[in-house]
UniProtKB/TrEMBL annotation:
This is Sulfur relay protein TusB. It comes from the Bacteria. The lineage of its organism: Bacteria, Pseudomonadati, Pseudomonadota, Gammaproteobacteria, Aeromonadales. Transmembrane segments: none annotated. The keyword Transferase applies. It comes from Aeromonas sobria. Pfam families: DsrH. One of its GO terms (cellular component) is sulfurtransferase complex. The keyword Transferase applies. One of its GO terms (biological process) is tRNA wobble position uridine thiolation. The gene is dsrH. Gene3D superfamilies: DsrEFH-like. Keywords: Transferase.
Length: 92
């Protein structure tokens, strides 16, 4: 399953909740304010080893660089959704 996280982990429990439900075959996408997690050392440690993607445009809009995960553009997100089916969205 593909999980889309929308909110900053410093303002919402969406990322923590999603991680508690994550299965080994699942993939995670950080987008909107959730990309902050990919730049925060505390969260980088927690997210290490998880199949993780980070929306590049959202990082750039916030002036951030990711410490974990793979940068993803909109075409890549569409491809992930096509591969995994309807995603589960956390936050919003």
């Amino acid at each position: 399953m593909l999980h889309l996280i929308l909110n900053s982990p410093f303002q919402s429990q969406a990322l923590a909740e999603a991680l508690s439900y994550l299965q080994p075959e699942d993939e995670l996408v950080l987008m909107q304010d959730a990309v902050i997690a990919a730049a925060a050392p505390k969260w980088c440690e927690r997210l290490a080893g998880i199949p993780l993607y980070v929306m590049q445009d959202d990082l750039q809009a916030r002036g951030l660089h990711h410490g974990v995960g793979i940068a993803l553009d909109m075409a890549g997100l569409v491809a992930l959704i096509a591969k995994n089916g309807s995603p589960r969205t956390w936050g919003g």
